[in-house]
Amino acid sequence: MRPEVDLVIRGASVVSPDAIVPASVAIAGEQIVAVGHDDTMPPAREELRADGLFLLPGAIDSHVHFRDPGYPHKETWRTGSAAAALGGVTTVFDMPNTSPATGTVEALRLKQMAAEASYCDFGIHGLLGDDTIERLEELLDAGVTSFKAFVGNTFGNLPAPTDGALLEGFETLAPLGIRTVVHAENSSILFRRQKKMQDAGRIDALAHLAARPAVAEIEAIGRVLTLAEWTGARVHIAHHSAADSLFLLREAKRRGVDVTAETCPQYLLLNTEHMRKLGGVMRLNPPIREPRHNQPLWDALMDGTLDMIATDHAPHAPEEKTRESIWDCDCGFPGVETQMPLMLTEVNRGRATLMDYVRWSAVAPARAWGLYGTKGVIAPGAHADIAIVDMARQGVLSQNKLQSISRISPWNGRPVQGYPLHTLLRGRFVMREGRLVEDAVGWGRSVKAVQKMPTPRPRNTEHYSRAILETPPGVPPTAVPAGEVDWSAT
Hints:
This protein is an alpha/beta fold. Helix content is about 25%, strand content about 20%. The strands form two sheets. Strands 1, 2, 3, 4, 5, 14, 15, 16 and 17 form a nine-stranded mixed β-sheet that branches. A hairpin with a 2-residue loop joins strand 2 (about 20-30) and strand 3 (about 30-35). The model has no long low-confidence stretch (mean pLDDT about 95).
């Protein structure tokens, strides 16, 4: 007799990047053990009928700010991860601009303690900055999965790494195969332009965009890709916002640079016409841009120039988003809970397919962060991370119903069609029938133990900073000429 499993989901369609196949799924413990025809499923202690629904690999959001430790009035790991669970997101990667910033082992321990309340699995990006270069390997050993370099300034006002530090950081991480997320904007351009506008008394919403033109993104991405290509480092461009810089990604990928890139629903679906109406609520970095940028970003997702969808979930209190001067409005807004219904709505409109969405939301991030096979796929042996989706369900997004502490959103009042009804994380329901499963708090764990990055491909190692600290063999130890030279003869 076949052994009994914990759960069989029957009657649904399983979605991969290549196909949508009617199938049932059997789960034992934390893993998927069978995917196939309903008649082939083993006996189960529990069954879930999912007729007419779709089983998607749980979304992996590689860019969230859960604000914990340091800013509990904005978000906590408990509330942020609960929002993820309600949004069909089963794994998140948290950014290091908390307080303290995640640039020391001590600060990392504080974040790991806060993450013990997580409803979803997680990775933690450590900070790559001038004063953390010597601690990168120590941070990896202590549990970070990856790093973040804030080349452009953002919330927390962490100083951008100098080019020398960025190069040295890539030199350290390239032989280890670790990927670095980069906020790619030129800080010098941003600060200079913002100061000139502030001095001129300009405080309107569109001033934020004027301070951060597309050329700031173009320049920074070009610089980052140059250093990554030279060292062989793996990089990831965060929240890509501008049509103008897509050519850099296309050319870098053509040359074999190991670069991945994300965009966010706000850059696909919003533009300056919305910002004129909503003002500082929409302030974020990089900024919401003119309408001409929207469609090229969609095109770049479709052709693979952009690899994935992330949210840059960046909550703030409502009073921090509604100040008179745009410069006083904090940057960012919540997104981890609304990403899936927003994108499924676009699928229903024919802008993409469910297979495309699975590639962007689960497969590509799983590959980028060394999780594919364990996560990002519905297949035997993988974690049972599943979003069970009703593509016919309609509704209206409401900021008042968000699980996040930050209940102010540019998506408020937006009609959507397509919702996650249930979310399973490693075989356990964390959201069921649209409601958070409260006693699943703390079920989330770090993905560090299952992360397996591909073989590193460092380049130009003989020129790395560590390699140049000693005099090469055969070279005189001082700058004094090795032999006698008759200077009078020259």
